[in-house]
Specification:
Largest sheet of chain A: none
CATH superfamily of chain A: Amino acid/polyamine transporter I
Structural class of chain A: mainly alpha
Number of domains of chain B: 2
CATH architecture of chain A: Up-down Bundle
Number of strands of chain A: 0
Largest interface: A-B, 48 and 37 residues
Number of helices of chain B: 13
CATH class of chain A: Mainly Alpha
Mean pLDDT of chain B: 88
Mean pLDDT of chain A: 90
Helix content of chain B: 25-40%
Distance between the termini of chain B: 72 Å
Radius of gyration of chain B: 25 Å
Oligomer: heterodimer
Low-confidence stretches of chain A: none
Number of domains of chain A: 1
Shape of chain A: globular
Shape of chain B: globular
CATH topology of chain A: Amino acid/polyamine transporter I
Structural class of chain B: alpha/beta
Largest sheet of chain B: 8 strands, mixed
Number of strands of chain B: 14
Number of helices of chain A: 15
Radius of gyration of chain A: 21 Å
Strand content of chain A: under 5%
Chain lengths: 362, 369
């Protein structure tokens, strides 16, 4: 095995980005589309896809102009480190909170379905220990684990064929985006379901030329769009729009509808498989938080930093204890994270330009 | 890479260990198979549960629990107090509603069933012409346990298009859709057996009227495409002749709906229905191996279906129930504003002109000329 300079491979990044992007929001995605966009809300996925691609383009600029250096190095070469402390603290906070809330929501849904009296925090503890274990292994191993988990997960797309019989195009109506609520809010809500691609900025130092990291990120995002789009189209032809608006988790209802000749009520099993994608999402966010904290505490080994972060977020996750609360928190942090996804590359770009200008000035 | 298997195992262990908290011991569970709902004159609900028993020591094959209460979940708590089993609803297959309750509206109960994550969206919705609880409590000697009997019969009949397959999912979907009204199969007690009594047509969640069982296949032609079914047609009236009968089997049917929004506000809807099937029985003057005779017969069957369809649609228009989903097709030809501003069920639907273009194709006529 090469140990000298390991780099993420193209396929690993594609899968990693796809897995990080697939989070708990996927369970309610068609409902969000119906609620905010109304009829044929599934089209909104395409708009978000376009917006995310533009966003990734800015990250590509950072990668190009910064010669693939870590964004932390790029920032620190212009600004004194102490001025960056608040920014780092903010990033650590947001990233670890997102990682935590996703697991909490997943666990609460699981509890609603299968374990009504088990303490959700106990379930969460088990998942968190796994995440801690995975995050200490470093990003290369996370990438490899994500590839294994990917295959446990992605075949479920084929289950969508099951709904062919009750699918009806005429149910979708010919109206586009009618009877919805505030579209701006909806756009943000759906964009939150795409989050995860922005973490590719932290992968820069772990990639080399062969990784083609930007193309891989675009590809992962494309894969996610494909899976969201097929899911949404099936949901809109299978359920009526008004019905979708009333549902909490359309994907769960879809999974519950599947009956095989020898077994039915498989939704618990299918739902269980989504754990893998939740673990990857949460792990990579936690890894991102750990990477950032390494900048603040370079002397402390990163596994201790991860441990402290997990312990901290576990303590915080006692606070919201109903599904609605967790959803609200996740929504809030999703919005902040969208801000980071747009703002961070722009900020680094400005610093890069300033840096180049001052160097030329000297 | 070598950590990956270890992580996988840990994940598995974590998932399995989580099962130790909420224990479900099979022998202690009462799997509700069928629930019946009836409305009492007092306004309360009369609810019956049928629970199959696997215990070889038990004398009876199933347990029946009955109570009256205001809501269905309250009744579950009350009924749990009557048994040594833990009542669970994960294996619920059928929810049957008495006619009186169906006429009052059943959405509240459907809503409760959909809300419960342990209940499958595949639970059937059925109307009983009469008292649902009485039918469920009765033991039919020559048949399996009543709950299972109903379930199996509905499943089989749905495959032959004699009743539609209607589950919680279908009912809720059509209830929320503004261009179609829900339907549900109707059953009734006929002494020693239970029989299909037609297809109940709902307006929102209230039962309005029903299609007779003999017309079930006509309804199936109009409702959509299907691949299996049998139809017996009495052509004596069409041909003014003595006795002429034909029985079609292995039916396959496709439906297309064309909408024409007339300038004068007269909406015309055309159902184009293509049916193919094999003749298994024919009593009458034609020689089926003769091509022109066969054509004549095909046309007669088609006009028979058209006649029946016209009567059926007129009946539905009279009751203002759009059970065929004509509204969804009209809606797709209109602007959103125009659709929303009109009162489809009350004002427009009863006045829509419905035309039929039916073609019947006899694939074969058995192994006898």
């Amino acid at each position: 095995m090469r140990t000298m300079k390991e780099a993420l491979s193209y396929a690993h990044v594609v899968i990693l980005i796809y897995m990080v992007q697939t989070g708990v929001t996927v369970f309610s995605l068609p409902q969000i589309e119906a609620q905010y966009f109304g009829t044929n809300g599934w089209l909104s996925v395409l708009f978000v896809f376009a917006a995310v691609s533009v966003n990734i383009f800015f990250m590509a600029l950072v990668y190009r102009i910064g010669n693939g250096k870590s964004i932390f190095d790029l920032m620190e070469q212009v600004l004194p480190k102490w001025t960056l402390i608040p920014l780092y603290g903010f990033l650590i906070g947001v990233w670890s909170m997102i990682g935590l809330m996703i697991v909490k929501e997943y666990v609460l849904i699981f509890q609603m379905m299968a374990f009504p009296t088990t303490d959700p925090m106990l379930l969460k503890l088990v998942v968190d220990l796994l995440i801690l274990y995975l995050v200490t292994k470093g990003i290369y191993n996370i990438g490899k684990a994500a590839s294994v988990f990917f295959w446990l997960n992605v075949w479920m797309l084929f289950l969508l064929f099951f709904f062919f019989g009750d699918f009806d195009w005429s149910r979708m109506t010919t109206f586009v985006f009618q009877g919805g609520e505030d579209r701006k809010e909806g756009f943000i809500a759906i964009a939150s379901a795409f989050l995860g691609y922005e973490l590719c900025m932290l992968l820069f130092p772990y990639a080399d030329r062969k990784t083609k990291i930007i193309r891989a990120t675009l590809m992962g995002n494309g894969l996610l769009t494909f899976s969201y789009l097929t899911l949404s189209i099936v949901a809109f032809g299978f359920f009526s729009v008004q019905q979708l608006k009333e549902m909490m988790f359309p994907l769960l209802d879809l999974m519950a509808y599947i009956v095989l000749p020898f077994v039915e009520r498989l939704e618990n099993f299918f739902y269980g498989l989504f754990l893998f994608s939740i673990i990857v999402t949460s792990t990579v966010y936690l890894w991102a938080a750990t990477e950032t904290s390494k900048r603040l505490f370079p002397r402390i080994a990163s596994k201790y930093l991860s441990f402290v972060l997990v312990a901290f977020q576990y303590a915080v996750s006692f606070l919201p204890d109903t599904l609605d609360e967790v959803k609200n928190w996740l929504e809030l942090f999703g919005q902040i994270e969208i801000g980071i996804a747009i703002g961070l590359p722009l900020f680094v770009l400005i610093l890069l330009i300033v840096h180049k200008a001052t160097r030329r000035g000297n | 890479m070598r950590n990956v298997p270890r992580i996988l195992i840990l994940t598995l262990v974590a998932t399995l260990l989580a099962g130790c908290g909420d224990k479900r011991i099979l022998e202690d569970l009462g799997f509700t198979q069928t629930t019946s709902y009836d409305l009492l004159p007092t306004g309360e609900l009369d609810i019956t549960l049928s629970i199959p028993l696997a215990d070889p020591e038990a004398k009876s094959k199933r347990m029946i629990l009955r109570t009256t209460s205001v809501s269905s979940k309250e009744s579950r708590i009350k009924m749990a107090m009557q048994t040594h089993l833990n009542l669970v609803s994960g294996q619920l297959r059928n929810s049957i509603f008495g006619l009186t309750l169906s006429k009052e509206g059943i959405w509240n109960h459907i809503d409760t069933l959909i809300r419960d994550p342990s209940i499958s969206p595949q639970v059937k919705v059925t109307v009983i012409n009469g008292n649902a609880g009485e039918l469920l409590r009765k033991d039919y000697k020559q048949q399996p346990r009543t709950g299972k009997y109903i379930d199996k019969m509905l499943q089989k009949e749905a495959e032959g298009q004699n009743v539609p397959k209607v589950t919680l999912y279908h009912f809720a979907r059509d209830y929320y859709d503004d261009g179609i009204d829900p339907i549900a199969p109707v059953l009734k007690d006929i002494g020693d057996h239970i029989a299909i009594d037609g297809i109940g047509l709902f307006r929102d969640d209230r039962y309005m009227t029903k299609i007779e069982p003999k017309d079930a296949l006509i309804f199936a032609f109009l409702r959509g495409r299907f691949k299996q079914g049998e139809l017996s047609v009495d052509l004596s009236r069409e041909t003014h002749s003595d006795k002429q009968m034909a029985m079609l089997s292995g039916l396959m049917s496709t439906r297309k709906v064309k909408v024409n929004l007339g300038r004068n506000g007269q909406t015309t809807v055309t159902f184009a229905i293509r049916i193919t099937g094999s003749i298994l029985e024919y009593i009458g003057p034609y020689n089926l191996s003769d091509h022109s005779d066969k054509k004549k017969l095909e046309n007669q069957i088609a006009s028979h279906i058209i006649d029946k369809s016209e009567v059926m649609v007129r009946m539905m228009q009279k009751h203002k129930v759009d059970s065929l989903g004509i509204g969804t097709h009209v809606r797709n030809r209109m602007s959103y504003k125009a659709w929303k501003s009109m009162n489809w069920n009350d004002d427009v639907y009863p006045k829509v002109r419905v035309l039929f273009d039916v073609s019947v194709k006899i694939k074969d006529y058995g192994k006898f000329r």
